[in-house]
Amino acid sequence: MSKGGRLPPWTLQISMLTASPAQERLSQVQSHLASSEADIPRGRGNILRKSPDDIVVTCALRTPITRGGKGGFKDTAAPDLLAHTFKSLISKSGIDPSLVEDISVGNVLAPGSGATEFRAAALVAGFPETTALNSLNRQCSSGLQACVVIANAIRCGMIDIGVGAGVESMSSQYGPGAVSEFSELLNGHQEAKNCKVPMGVLSEQMASDRKITREAQDAFAARSYQRAEAAQKAGKFQEEIVPMKVKWVDPKTDEEKEIVVDKDDGIRSGMSVEGLAKIKSAFKEGGSIHAGNASQVSDGAAAVLLMKRSTAEGLGQRVVGKFVCSSVVGVKPLLMGIGPWKAIPVALEKAGIGKEEVDLWEINEAFASQCVWCVKELGLDESKVNPNGGAIAFGHPLGCTGARQVSTLFNELGRTGQRVGVTSMCVGTGMGMAAVWVKE
Predict the structure, then answer these.
(1) Rounded to an integer, what distance in angstroms lies between the CA atom of residue 307 and that of residue 184?
(2) What's this model's pTM, rounded to 2 decimal places?
(3) 249-295, pLDDT tens digit by residue?
(4) Catalytic residue positions, numbered
(5) Any residues with CB less than 8 A from the CB of 144 and at least 6 apart, and which?
(6) Exposure string over 312-336, b if 16+ CB within 10 A, otherwise e
(7) What span, in angstroms and rounded, lies between the C-alpha atoms of 242 and 46?
(8) Which of 49-70 are b and which e, b meaning 16 or more Cβ less than 10 Å from the residue's Cβ?
(9) pLDDT tens column, 321-351
């Protein structure tokens, strides 16, 4: 039912096409829908309540996130990152891999979203041929979309156990080749043509139009770096990170070495507003967006194991938390940065809670400009947003981030004894996505 209690247009279209008996039945259905909507339980207490049908997470982990072209994973292929993550998920959770029926992997840059090589990675990791796999691309929200695909498949009874994951090797696959040329048809439609405007350019324009100053952006970015540095020094990421041994070529000597990557290597120490103010703008002379207040080009992978609570209890799986609901919305392509502002209220409405009932927010820091605007417009408590830093500080491997946020969110909720969290991000070409989660 639409806002204001009016029936949606499709019900009127149906009623015009039906005979009198059908109209009577339609009236009954409409009445049922109205009462169902009114009966939806609301409030934090409702989503904290446990049910055998809850879609729960029993394991969520990630690799370290490393600098694109420079960091520990610069010479490691995306399927190898994914295979290691899958192996770690099986080991840490103790799940029998033959019980996992489907895997969904978010990826942005690999040809065909990596469908073939990611299926191979699952087999290498120990999943049997009976475990299916799909890959998908909803740009920056791909990792979250993969988790939602699995959650919804479990909820509707298609599968009982699945894995939502995300991976990206921006070292090897980031660049102009990731976007194909537009046809004459697409270029002939202005709003469609706007889908290919580089995100940095449109974010610069949005910052100018919405009067988001460079000072505000640099202050947000400095806080992200400082929080991430403090969190790393305190060992707050250790619970969610699985170290990985890889081969790495020293750029100074061309010598191949074997190294263990066990922490995010993009976090820079001692970052300040004053230091960021010295960095040259990247997309416009005298502009406000630069390498220090935008997300880093990065490599990494993450995975989330999902099933119903009743299944987890039957298998003796420890419940980490649960997936409540998600939202996905569209916005103008040139305003893609406002995606969280539009998606978050939709997700909260579906969950039946208000923003004041959320303990922590993990909002992807694609650009400080869009984060500053979204946080301000939503009226969020800044101390609850990315308390351990975000993508500006430790990176944004495009297809990975949405799945990575799940492990980071649950890790911090558990550490602080809090319960309700939201993950969200803006999405290229003009979209936003958000999800509500509850820590066990």
Answers:
(1) 46
(2) 0.90
(3) 999 999 999 999 999 999 999 999 999 999 999 998 889 999 999 99
(4) 140, 396, 426
(5) 106, 166, 326, 401, 402, 403, 405, 406, 423, 425, 433, 435
(6) beebebebbbbbbbbbbbebebbbb
(7) 34
(8) eeeeebbbbbbbbbbbbbbbee
(9) 999 999 999 999 999 999 999 999 999 999 9
